[in-house]
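Every protein is a chain of amino acids, and every chain bends into a shape of its own. Below is the pair of lines this work produces for a single protein:
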Amino acid sequence: MQSSIRPLRSVLYVPAANEKAMAKSGALDCDGVVYDLEDAVAPGAKAQAREALKAYFDANPTSGKQRIIRINSGGTEWGAEDFRAAVACRPEAILLPKVEHPQTILDAAAELDRLGLDDVQIWAMIETPLAIVNIRDIARLGKMAGSRLECFVIGTNDLAKETGVPLPLGRSTLKHWLLQVVIHARAFGLQVLDGVFNDFGDQDGFEAECAEGAVMGFDGKTLIHPAQIAVANQAFAPSPFAIAEAERIVLAYGQPENANKGVITIDGKMVERLHLDIARKTLAKAG
C-alpha cells in the first residue's frame, strides 16, 4: 500500500554500472532516481554493477529524493542476486520488471517481510500485453495491507515491442492501454509514472509528450537524461491556480466550525470532503 504521497514529477533512470552518473545523481533536481540493474546493464557487467551500487549506497546512506532500484526479474539468472543487492542498499523501493501477475509482488513483499525491512516499498513495471490484461488484479494490491505496492511505471518501449505495434510520435497506438493503467492506479490508490521519451535531443517532442502525460493523469515521467528534468518538473507540477484553490480548501476545513462537516461552501461553491483529500494530494505534489 502507498505509504505516503510524495512528488514524483521526474524520475531519472541511472545505470548502476555508471559510477560517475551515480555520483552526480544526488545533486540533480529530479524527484526520484531509479538505479538500474536491468536493461541499462549488459549481461557481462551485472556483477560489477551490483558492487558499484552497494558502494554508492554505503557512501551515501541518505538522500533528499526517492531512490529506487530496478532489478532483473526472478526468472532470470541475475534476479536473485539483484534482489539481495537491492535489499542490502535499503532504497525507498525496489522496482520489479515485467510484472504480469499479483503473485510476483506478493512474493517480493513476503521476502521483505521475512527480512524485516518494513520501510522498503515495491514498484511494478507495466510493460507487457499480459500486464495490461491483468491490470485490475495487479492494481488491487494497492488496497491490500502488506502488499507494499506503491507505484506503477509504464514501459512504453517494451509494451510497443511486445505487442508489435509501432510507437509513433504522439503514441496514438498506446493511449488506450496507458489510460487503462492510469484509471486502475487511481482506483486503488497507486501512483503511476509515464514511460520514457527516447530522443532526448528533441526538446519540442519531449515537452509535448510531458504535457500529454499530465493531461492523461500520470503523476510524473521516467527520464533517460538529466536535461529532461526541468521540463518534467514543470509539466507535472500543479498550476498556481490549483495550488491556491487547494490551500483555500485545506484552510477552510481547518476552521473549528467546519471540522466535522461533510460539505461546506467556499466562494459560493459547494465543497465536499473528497475535495479536501484531493487538495491535500495537490499540495503534497507541489512539495
Notes: The first strand starts at residue 10 and ends at 15.
